């Protein structure tokens, strides 16, 4: 078979796996939050409620595909598509295991950062095209938040690039054979993870949505399938940030010597990613949402200097050949 | 920052706490015997209706969900010609039970009052009347009140005293 056909099949399989995973995450999240709040969560549809997302999907497909008369129609429809597509694109450069990889880009990391930046347009355009006050406020917040957090998200990863000597994600993973980057780049990981939460608009940094103040923020006017696309984007974003944390700081599919033969590399990768997804959900359950000025102040006054300092120290140490 | 980490840890510890949820339709919570649920009309120990249709319950009702009409039988007993409670309005406050001078109207620990059609929540007298005595097994209004009915004159009831001549001067 020609290479292109194989790639197409791989992409199809990837999409067929990722989208149900994002849907299942809704159920996983609700069950886990239930457990942590001493409740049960959805447990009625199917065994343990696993079919809850399927039921929700049926309901959401049955809804009227409605565009408010005061909205900018083209942009209104386009915005959720941009969001979902940008997140899905990033999965193309992720190395799930030595053999499972769609695009072996030599600037994979930059591609991921670029797609994360493009995803802002989804939220900003949704807020603008909705032509309503809540949506506009949500869109504005999203713009300010994402632009601020993008700055040091990139900077926090430069330490990793410095140590691995490459932007290629496969090579970054292979550079961790003698110790994961979390050992030397702990600060970088913390900064990246916090920026990742802000980037995917998850609690505690979900100010663009902020149900308690802005109804639903940028997607106030959305319903039905378009709303589902926003949700898909959000949950894929959670998966993506977890995957990136694993690839960049926790050795991707690699495991230390005695453990690496117990499971295939792909399973180790999935296990590590699940850990971070659960941690994402734990953060959502545990932490309250900060005020907007606190969020930006925290970003510019704490996280940015920290990321710069981390980069500086890493550069110095690798120049002195300590690391 | 310490506060946030502590919060995360405390929430994580709840993984091992038992859920407080009672899975309702399968497991029903215990309701005390005097729980205020569906309203019933009780009967006297001998099987007669207790309600004398005095309208006190309808007056006490804060949402005006009780409607009734009094009628007097040939034997002198008063009873309700019709008695209607609109449960779609009823707030189960229990004021009617407190107002009732004959212990006729009582609230029961049945809270499952769901219907698809609102009209089905309007209960008529035949729906409200039960065959039992409810919470006061021995009580019979006409044995206490000194009202004459057939086969029982004034003051002849089990718990009554003979009438007093209010105009007499004797102690």
UniProtKB/TrEMBL annotation, chain A:
UniProt entry tagged with the keyword Transmembrane: yes
Catalytic activity line of the entry: a quinone + NADH + 5 H(+)(in) = a quinol + NAD(+) + 4 H(+)(out)
GO biological processes: aerobic respiration
Principal EC category: translocase
Protein's UniProt keywords contain NAD: yes
Bilayer topology: Multi-pass membrane protein
InterPro entries, sorted: NADH_UbQ_OxRdtase_su1/FPO, NADH_UbQ_OxRdtase_su1_CS
Alphabetized UniProt keyword annotations: Cell membrane, Membrane, NAD, Quinone, Translocase, Transmembrane, Transmembrane helix, Ubiquinone
PROSITE patterns: COMPLEX1_ND1_2
Record-annotated membrane-spanning stretches: 6-28, 74-97, 109-130, 151-174, 180-198, 227-254, 266-286, 298-320
One GO CC term on file: plasma membrane
GO molecular function: NADH dehydrogenase activity; oxidoreductase activity, acting on NAD(P)H, quinone or similar compound as acceptor; quinone binding
Subcellular localization: Cell membrane; Membrane
EC number assigned by the record: 7.1.1.-
Similarity annotation: Belongs to the complex I subunit 1 family.
Subunit structure and binding partners: NDH-1 is composed of 14 different subunits. Subunits NuoA, H, J, K, L, M, N constitute the membrane sector of the complex.
HAMAP family, A to Z: NDH1_NuoH
Function: NDH-1 shuttles electrons from NADH, via FMN and iron-sulfur (Fe-S) centers, to quinones in the respiratory chain. The immediate electron acceptor for the enzyme in this species is believed to be ubiquinone. Couples the redox reaction to proton translocation (for every two electrons transferred, four hydrogen ions are translocated across the cytoplasmic membrane), and thus conserves the redox energy in a proton gradient. This subunit may bind ubiquinone.
Protein name, per record: NADH-quinone oxidoreductase subunit H
Native source species: Thalassotalea marina
UniProtKB/TrEMBL annotation, chain B:
Topological relation to the membrane, as annotated: Peripheral membrane protein
GO BP field: aerobic respiration
Record-listed [4Fe-4S] cluster 1 binding positions: 51, 54, 57, 100
Domain 4Fe-4S ferredoxin-type: 41-71, 81-110
Cell compartment(s), UniProt: Cell inner membrane; Cell membrane
EC number: 7.1.1.-
Gene3D superfamilies: 3.30.70.3270
Keyword set includes Metal-binding: yes
UniProt-listed PROSITE patterns: 4FE4S_FER_1 (PS00198), 4FE4S_FER_2 (PS51379)
Pfam families: Fer4_7
GO CC list: plasma membrane
Cofactor note: Binds 2 [4Fe-4S] clusters per subunit.
Binding site for [4Fe-4S] cluster 2: 61, 90, 93, 96
Gene Ontology molecular-function annotations: 4 iron, 4 sulfur cluster binding; iron ion binding; NADH dehydrogenase (quinone) (non-electrogenic) activity; quinone binding
SUPFAM superfamilies to which the protein is assigned, alphabetical: 4Fe-4S ferredoxins (SSF54862)
Cofactor(s) the protein needs: [4Fe-4S] cluster
Catalyzed reaction equations: a quinone + NADH + 5 H(+)(in) = a quinol + NAD(+) + 4 H(+)(out)
Keyword Cell cycle: no
Keywords: 4Fe-4S, Cell membrane, Iron, Iron-sulfur, Membrane, Metal-binding, NAD, Quinone, Repeat, Translocase, Ubiquinone
Main location: membrane
Subunit structure: NDH-1 is composed of 13 different subunits. Subunits NuoA, H, J, K, L, M, N constitute the membrane sector of the complex. NDH-1 is composed of 14 different subunits. Subunits NuoA, H, J, K, L, M, N constitute the membrane sector of the complex.
Functional description taken from the UniProt entry: NDH-1 shuttles electrons from NADH, via FMN and iron-sulfur (Fe-S) centers, to quinones in the respiratory chain. The immediate electron acceptor for the enzyme in this species is believed to be ubiquinone. Couples the redox reaction to proton translocation (for every two electrons transferred, four hydrogen ions are translocated across the cytoplasmic membrane), and thus conserves the redox energy in a proton gradient.
Family statement: Belongs to the complex I 23 kDa subunit family.
Protein name, per record: NADH-quinone oxidoreductase subunit I
Gene name linked to the record: nuoI
